[in-house]
Amino acid sequence: MIYTVTLNPSIDYVIKVDKLTTGNINRVNEEHVYPGGKGINVTRILKSLDNDNIALGFVSGFTGDYIINSLQELNLKSDFIKVKEGFTRINVKVKSEEETEINGQGPKISEEELNQFYKVIDKLVDGDILILSGSIPSCLDERLYESIMKKVEDRDIKVIVDATKNLLLNVLKYKPFLIKPNNHELAEMFNVELNSTEDVVFYARKLKEMGAQNVLISMGKDGALLVTENDEIFASSVAKGEVVNSVGAGDSMVAGFIAGYLKSNSYEEALRLGAASGGATAFSSDLATREFIDKLVDEIKIEKIK
Ligand SMILES: Nc1ncnc2c1ncn2[C@@H]1O[C@H](COP(=O)(O)OP(=O)(O)OP(=O)(O)O)[C@@H](O)[C@H]1O
Ligand SMILES: O=P(O)(O)OC[C@@]1(O)O[C@H](CO)[C@@H](O)[C@@H]1O
What we know:
With 306 residues, this protein is an alpha/beta fold. It has helices at 38-48, 61-73, 111-122, 144-152, 165-169, 183-190, 197-209, 249-264, 267-282, 290-297; strands at 2-6, 10-16, 30-36, 53-60, 77-83, 89-95, 99-102, 129-133, 158-162, 178-179, 214-218, 224-227, 233-236, 302-304. The protein is built from 10 helices and 14 strands.
């Protein structure tokens, strides 16, 4: 079974404002509400691509109820721990001349609730896939993903991590199957500027040396680069289209990559489906549909650099 983990889900409130200004009332001319959080987005795209999976994590309060109900309505399987204190965050995504995001902190998680979550992780078995995505509530320790990986290290479980900074760096010693920072996150982790493909490859390889098996660097409209466990390097082109809402493009890429890999056992095909899924989401108001992803797949060119 595939499990996605969203320790800090969100309601994504996506609004369109002609011109965003601070210190004023801004009137919205379009608004949407979606169940969000990186792992939940991965769950939704995996399901669209026919990959059965279960979404895990924490929810709380009336916003948490919205998440659970939305997943049920979408026929998605989930096993969230309901926590007592605080509420599942509401993340505001403003589409104006630029995209501006305001992401909340998330609820308080008690020791007991964390242990309840670990009990769910204890049930995973050999052959399962575990996808750890996004930030964690601010009350939790940034070694949390590391602790989860340590828990499953004796089982034959492929772990994918889509996180940033220490949350990601701390897990590398447990050799995650795949990590997917974007180019900005990669630059931030090494405190460098990335000025060329060579720079991106150099630092992606560093993450591999530090333990990741495969490193996928997404670069928005500039495509993606994959350094594989065999040290092959693939560059992906992007599909053409008009960006509507790029929130979740990276999560769609992770889901497409895993679905493509499971289907073909080929990194090239995984990257192709990942890029098509990311693009299809960027060109949609909500996450991509299966039909749209299928339409874009043939547009994606994969070049082997090494
Ligand atoms: N404007 C675009 N045009 C075509 N493809 C795109 C575009 N934006 C994103 N994609 C595709 O989706 C992939 C992931 O996008 P991106 O790098 O923006 O992820 P991200 O920064 O993790 O996004 P998010 O955090 O919003 O989920 C890209 O590598 C690319 O293949
Ligand atoms: O604050 P985090 O956990 O890093 O990111 C959360 C988030 O921005 O990521 C998703 C898009 O990737 C959104 O659905 C959600 O609001």
